[in-house]
From TrEMBL:
The keyword Kinase applies. It catalyses: AMP + ATP = 2 ADP. Consists of three domains, a large central CORE domain and two small peripheral domains, NMPbind and LID, which undergo movements during catalysis. The LID domain closes over the site of phosphoryl transfer upon ATP binding. Assembling and dissambling the active center during each catalytic cycle provides an effective means to prevent ATP hydrolysis. InterPro entries: Adenylat/UMP-CMP_kin, Adenylat_kinase_CS, P-loop_NTPase. The gene is adk. PROSITE patterns: ADENYLATE_KINASE. Its EC number is 2.7.4.3. This is Adenylate kinase. AMP binds at residues 26, 31, 52-54, 80-83, 87, 128, 139. It comes from Aeromicrobium senzhongii.
Length: 182
């Protein structure tokens, strides 16, 4: 977990590989649907372009389906989900039905000026239409209002592992590895 631009995707790919688990990224799934111009992709694009979250019912169904696939049965890493308190409850239901559980929740912390700089740079290099400065700032506000409260939930459950997300991807990756139980 972490605000947009914290490096979740970069770190999630590396960590999923390290644990030998499925990397389940809602953002990647949405972008693939956008590229293929599916109905879900067109719906998701409208929300993403405005810096809003894709509605829970769409996201929850997609995650439930993905977690039920064979490669996620032994080990998985969620990237970009859950993002709302309602999604936490739905994830609890999904995992209960699959007789699975979360082992931990990693939260990357990065100062806001750095987040904005990273996302503006990413917009230049990747051409992502959802990374304009106004949308980036709005996405930070949405994160603080809707997703940041999840940190307290996972902290109360004893699952939260906060990691400094400043520095190079390699430095952050080492901090994550050091913070995880052996």
């Amino acid at each position: 977990m972490g605000p947009p631009g914290a490096g979740k995707g970069t770190q999630a790919v590396a960590l999923a590989e390290r644990i030998g688990g499925a990397h389940i990224s809602t953002g990647d799934i949405f972008r693939a649907n956008v590229a293929q111009q599916t109905e879900l992709g067109q719906t998701a694009q409208r929300y993403m372009d405005a810096g809003e979250y894709v509605p829970d019912e769409v996201t929850n169904a997609m995650v439930a389906d993905r977690l039920a696939q064979d490669d996620a049965r032994e080990s998985f890493l969620l990237d970009g989900y859950p993002r709302t308190l309602d999604q936490v409850a739905k994830l609890d239901d999904i995992l209960g039905a699959l007789d699975s559980k979360l082992d931990g929740v990693i939260a990357l912390t990065v100062v806001e000026d750095e987040l904005i700089a990273r996302l503006l740079e990413r917009a230049k290099s990747s051409g992502r239409s959802d990374d304009t400065e106004d949308v980036i700032r709005h996405r930070q506000d949405v994160y603080r209002a809707e997703t940041e409260p999840l940190l307290a939930v996972y902290r109360d459950r004893g699952l939260l592992i906060e990691v400094d997300g400043m520095g190079t991807p390699e430095e952050v990756g080492r901090r994550i590895a050091d913070a995880l139980p052996s």
